[in-house]
């Protein structure tokens, strides 16, 4: 993914899925498309997980993303 939005939410009382849903809804409203990829810091996923699916959205661990941030957009086609 080369283009997307960077979303920040460090609320410790909100579940990860809710945070990502907020970012997904914002992306859909702004761009009129549904994102299919969300990159997060590995510490935000459960121990040993590198990827999780939330409906059609793939949540993937990526070390370059800071904790509390979400890089969300459309995955590049190969």
Describe the structure.
The chain is α+β, with helices and mostly antiparallel strands. The chain has one domain. The chain has one helix spanning 16-31, and strands spanning 4-8, 37-40, 51-54, 57-61, 69-73. A 5-stranded mixed sheet has the order 1-5-2-4-3, covered by helices on one side. Strand 3 and strand 4 (57-61) form a beta hairpin. It is globular and about 30 Å long. The chain starts with a strand and ends in a 5-residue tail after the last strand.
Task: Describe the structure in brief.
This protein has 78 residues and is an alpha+beta fold.
The total count of strands amounts to 5
Number of helical elements: 1
What's the N-to-C terminus distance? 11 Å
> Mind telling me the C-alpha Rg?
12 Å
* Count of discrete domains: 1
Helix/strand class: alpha+beta
Q: pLDDT under 50 segments (min length 5)? A: none
Return the average pLDDT rounded to an integer. 92
Molecular shape: globular
Query: Into which percent range does the helicity of residues fall?
Result: 10-25%
Strand content: 25-35%
**Taking strands numbered 1, 2, ... along the chain, how are they ordered across the largest sheet?**
1-5-2-4-3
Helix and strand pattern? EHEEEE
- Characterize the main sheet: 5 strands, mixed
